[in-house]
Amino acid sequence: MFLSLCVFLLIIAGALVTSNDAGLAVPDWPTSFGSFYKIPPMVGGVKYEHGHRMIAQFVGFLTIILAIWTQRVDRRRNIRILGWTALALVITQGILGGLTVKMLLPWYVSTGHAMLAQTFFSLTILMSIFSSRRWLESPPKSSLPDSGTFGLRNLSLLALLAVYMQLFLGAAFRHGGMHFLPHIIGAAFATVILLWASIRALTGYANVRPIRAAASAILGLLFLQLVLGFGAYLTRVEWGKDAAQPRMSMVATTVAHVAIGALLLAHCFMLAVQAYRHLSSRAAETSLSSDPKAVTA
Amino acid sequence: MRVLLASLLLVLALGCSEKPHTPTATSPTGPVTPIDSATTATITGVITFDGIAPKPVPIDMSQDPACVMGTEPNFSQSLTVENGKLQNVYVYIKDGLGNRIFATPSEPATLDQHGCRYVPHVLGIMTNQKLRILNSDLALHNVHPAAHDNASWNISQSPKGEPIEQSFSKPELMIPVKCNQHPWMKMYLNVSSSPFFFVTGKDGKFEIKGLPPGDYTIAALHERLGEKTQRITVAPKEAKSISFKFSPTDDSK
Questions:
Q1: Burial of A140 (0-12, 13-18, 19+ CB in 10 A)
Q2: For a surface tag, which of A7, A224, A249, B215 has the fewest beta carbons within 10 Å of its beta carbon?
Q3: Which of B4, B54, B181 is closest, CB to CB, to A44?
Q4: Ordered DSSP codes for A237-270
Q5: For residue A9, what are the domain limits?
Q6: Inter-chain contact A24–B144, Cβ cutoff 8 Å?
Q7: Which domain holds residue B157?
Q8: What's the first-to-final CA gap in chain A, in angstroms?
């Protein structure tokens, strides 16, 4: 959980770099002004860029501990794989961060860096859920059927896809690779799917606490995200078009939009994980009900 | 599901915005074409802004104490109009020079960083001419031209540090040069294969001299107001005067 909190701070620090146009304030990588350990004067853009690098180093260190600790302590093979996956992701993320500096911020590398950051954040959240006492001690309610024309398990995956698409469109716009229009169209698309998934979860499975909690959080975060998105559009695209530099209002709304987006993605992962844990597929139900031995057992 | 996928592809297709870029002419190579200085013409003129100029946008330099000099407010130079005259317009011969080859000046062009501002805000240089970048400030800067046709680079320059010398081999217009330490610091660099260009000052005036007689397209280019062109014919030894007029409707912001 501590790692997740640090990654969340790292995402905010990264968003501050972009919002303050400070991505190239430190021109070299992996060193900063030629040094691995010296802290440069933290003024101007360096404050954001080098601050981001320092938090990233700390997160990398924590992730190494997480991977080794999980390998030694957790008997579940999948969780140990997740620990090493987290380490692989954080290394890849560091390399992408370096590449974007070396290549002078090409939009596709910066967008990949932004998307991987949020994926890594979600992974650390999932790992903390899988290691929680509640997860370990409460058995799944797998007898609940995933009924309806479009089951919650599939809907939760669709919600993930929609949020990822929005993440891509938003990051690509932010890093100069796309117009903002697709992000706005995508927002309407993602809103419909997230509303569909969370309302379906709340109306069908309100008695399953983890599903209810994830769906309620998605609804709240979605509302907040839409407000922040509108705020970011107003401050940056409309009111900020003649700004000589990033204004506080621009920075605050865009950074908050990125941070809430990360939380939204993590909660979509949580909903999907809980849906797959507590609900059984219709195919399984059918085969179960058609198998007399299984019924009597 | 198919509808969803189709919508996704449509949204992506709508968004792909590799900015359209008009490639500039390549710099001709070979021996310098002689010009008869006894027959050359001069074009002079003034650039005006017809209408109410937008209010100057203030700059807040407080994020770096080394940048705060004096008590006078700083303003953005992206659109500077004084008494109806437009500053920082790059005027150049866009067409009509043919395949003439011009000598590269041996003197470098100078770009200074002073008071955490680029001086000048718009600069014209010739292809392969040395650009000497100074840092007169007590602040750390980084110089990052985001060129399209030429190579881009990003170099840090310490307070009062050693000058940076670079050159650009291809003609290119309005290359944004930025400092990522100080997000308000931005200037535009124009690289030309000919020496026939001028950047307007506060009086909005320009002068292009030493031009061989002929038919030309002369262009006035501004970072926000875009480009305006005129066809012009100059006879031997002729001095011609023309003017360009921009208005608030030209503003891209």
A1: middle
A2: B215
A3: B181
A4: IITTTT-SS--HHHHHHHHHHHHHHHHHHHHHHH
A5: 1-138
A6: yes
A7: 103-193
A8: 40
- Is A237 an 8 Å CB contact of chain B? no
> Residue B93's pLDDT is what?
97
Extended strands (E) in chain B: 41-49, 58-59, 74-75, 81-82, 85-86, 90-95, 109-114, 117-119, 122-126, 131-135, 141-145, 155-157, 164-166, 172-178, 186-192, 197-199, 205-211, 214-222, 226-234, 239-246
With a pLDDT cut of 90, the percent of chain A lying above it is: 78
Token pair for B192: 């030309």
A121 and A182 housed in the same domain = no
ipTM value for the complex: 0.82
Q: Is residue A284 over pLDDT 70?
A: no
pLDDT at A296: 36
| Helix, strand, coil percent values for chain B (each to nearest 5) | 10, 40, 50
- pLDDT tier for residue A279 given thresholds of 50, 70 and 90: confident
- Do B67 and B143 lie in one domain? The reply is no
Per the structure, the count of domains in chain B is 2
Residue numbers in B near A41 (CB within 8 A): 140
Pick from B14-18, B101-105, B176-180: least confident: B14-18
Cα B10 to Cα A89, A195, B16: the distances in Å are 30, 22, 10
Which residues fall within 8 angstroms of residue B184, CB to CB, at 6 or more apart? Answer: A244, A245, B59, B60, B61, B74, B76, B116
Task: Decide which of A138, A171, A200 is a domain's last residue.
Answer: A138
Residue numbers in B near A38 (CB within 8 A): none
Residue B59 within a domain? yes
Inform me whether the C-beta atom of residue A197 falls under 8 Å from chain B C-beta atoms: no
